[in-house]
Amino acid sequence: MAIIDGKVSLPHVVTMESLSSQEVMGLIQRGLAFKKGEARAAISQEAYVSNLFFEDSTRTHKSFEMAELRLGLNMIDFDAKTSSVNKGETLYDTILTMSALGVDICVIRHSEVDYYQALIDSPTITASIVNGGDGSGQHPSQSLLDLMTIYEEFGHFEGLKIMIAGDLTHSRVAKSNMQILKRLGATLFFAGPREWYAEEFDAYGQHVSLDEIVEQADVLMFLRVQHERHDGNESFSKEDYHRLYGLTQERYERMKASAIIMHPAPVNRDVEIADALVEAPKSRIVRQMQNGVFVRMAILEAVLHARANQ
């Protein structure tokens, strides 16, 4: 348990399984404190961070940048398109270089699942690793901003009925969220095409039809259909997907009055969620994006705290 002087202290943030429930709640509470405008703890050391995104990203990439700017960190620019990656440099050697140059934290998104393992196991790489998404593996900062949004809304996780619907097998969001939400006491349901559901999900919840659960769920979390990972081989049209598995106006009207809609974005409008519902009163999609900045501030602060106490 990495709590030092009452503060979360983490050498790396790469998976949700690596975080204790106390650490998760500590990061949520710190994110909420940042959102309320509480002054950040002074960062005693000069700190350098680099965002290395090898897959396209708007929300995660720019959210980390905003968090870093708010914390007053020194940002070292990195663009994969103009780096030695184009000469065949491996990810390991890229991070070895950044670490040798004095970068303290590398925030990385990469297509390889578990890319971070070799980096955090290296005796030579001294930079801390924050996982901004590894292929279809994990996305811990997205999971934490989702948790912050749910906690901000309900004040607890125990007993909440949470539905995760859509492209489950390709979703790092689903995999990160299902593990921690079950641990925190939520009851999980999965919906969407059967062919996008794997047996590994059985340990966390049950697969149901969207129409079975829409009136009971406290949280309806829709996932983006990741067309880029399907190679255009979806067995249904966008219109059919929306009718069968998406949030239509009719389903929206059947939701509980207190229920909320979530989505990691970008939303395929009129596919996962009807265009008119993306910013509907029950939608928390914009709030998720806002909360992402504050929970990422909490993540970076926790990593810097660990480094200061090495």
Automatic annotation (TrEMBL):
<keyword id="KW-0665">Pyrimidine biosynthesis</keyword>
<feature type="binding site">
    <location>
        <position position="265"/>
    </location>
    <ligand>
        <name>carbamoyl phosphate</name>
    </ligand>
</feature>
<dbReference type="Pfam" id="PF00185">
    <property type="entry name" value="OTCace"/>
</dbReference>
<feature type="binding site">
    <location>
        <position position="224"/>
    </location>
    <ligand>
        <name>L-aspartate</name>
    </ligand>
</feature>
<comment type="pathway">
    <text>Pyrimidine metabolism; UMP biosynthesis via de novo pathway; (S)-dihydroorotate from bicarbonate: step 2/3.</text>
</comment>
<feature type="binding site">
    <location>
        <position position="109"/>
    </location>
    <ligand>
        <name>carbamoyl phosphate</name>
    </ligand>
</feature>
<feature type="binding site">
    <location>
        <position position="172"/>
    </location>
    <ligand>
        <name>L-aspartate</name>
    </ligand>
</feature>
<dbReference type="GO" id="GO:0004070">
    <property type="term" value="F:aspartate carbamoyltransferase activity"/>
</dbReference>
<protein>
    <recommendedName>
        <fullName>Aspartate carbamoyltransferase</fullName>
        <ecNumber>2.1.3.2</ecNumber>
    </recommendedName>
</protein>
<dbReference type="GO" id="GO:0006520">
    <property type="term" value="P:amino acid metabolic process"/>
</dbReference>
<dbReference type="InterPro" id="IPR006132">
    <property type="entry name" value="Asp/Orn_carbamoyltranf_P-bd"/>
</dbReference>
<comment type="similarity">
    <text>Belongs to the aspartate/ornithine carbamoyltransferase superfamily. ATCase family.</text>
</comment>
<feature type="domain" description="Aspartate/ornithine carbamoyltransferase Asp/Orn-binding">
    <location>
        <begin position="158"/>
        <end position="302"/>
    </location>
</feature>
<comment type="subunit">
    <text>Heterododecamer (2C3:3R2) of six catalytic PyrB chains organized as two trimers (C3), and six regulatory PyrI chains organized as three dimers (R2).</text>
</comment>
<comment type="function">
    <text>Catalyzes the condensation of carbamoyl phosphate and aspartate to form carbamoyl aspartate and inorganic phosphate, the committed step in the de novo pyrimidine nucleotide biosynthesis pathway.</text>
</comment>
<feature type="binding site">
    <location>
        <position position="59"/>
    </location>
    <ligand>
        <name>carbamoyl phosphate</name>
    </ligand>
</feature>
<dbReference type="InterPro" id="IPR006130">
    <property type="entry name" value="Asp/Orn_carbamoylTrfase"/>
</dbReference>
<dbReference type="GO" id="GO:0006207">
    <property type="term" value="P:'de novo' pyrimidine nucleobase biosynthetic process"/>
</dbReference>
<dbReference type="Pfam" id="PF02729">
    <property type="entry name" value="OTCace_N"/>
</dbReference>
<dbReference type="GO" id="GO:0016597">
    <property type="term" value="F:amino acid binding"/>
</dbReference>
<dbReference type="InterPro" id="IPR006131">
    <property type="entry name" value="Asp_carbamoyltransf_Asp/Orn-bd"/>
</dbReference>
<dbReference type="GO" id="GO:0044205">
    <property type="term" value="P:'de novo' UMP biosynthetic process"/>
</dbReference>
<feature type="domain" description="Aspartate/ornithine carbamoyltransferase carbamoyl-P binding">
    <location>
        <begin position="12"/>
        <end position="152"/>
    </location>
</feature>
<feature type="binding site">
    <location>
        <position position="87"/>
    </location>
    <ligand>
        <name>L-aspartate</name>
    </ligand>
</feature>
<feature type="binding site">
    <location>
        <position position="139"/>
    </location>
    <ligand>
        <name>carbamoyl phosphate</name>
    </ligand>
</feature>
<dbReference type="GO" id="GO:0005829">
    <property type="term" value="C:cytosol"/>
</dbReference>
<dbReference type="InterPro" id="IPR036901">
    <property type="entry name" value="Asp/Orn_carbamoylTrfase_sf"/>
</dbReference>
<feature type="binding site">
    <location>
        <position position="60"/>
    </location>
    <ligand>
        <name>carbamoyl phosphate</name>
    </ligand>
</feature>
<dbReference type="InterPro" id="IPR002082">
    <property type="entry name" value="Asp_carbamoyltransf"/>
</dbReference>
<feature type="binding site">
    <location>
        <position position="142"/>
    </location>
    <ligand>
        <name>carbamoyl phosphate</name>
    </ligand>
</feature>
<feature type="binding site">
    <location>
        <position position="266"/>
    </location>
    <ligand>
        <name>carbamoyl phosphate</name>
    </ligand>
</feature>
<keyword id="KW-0808">Transferase</keyword>
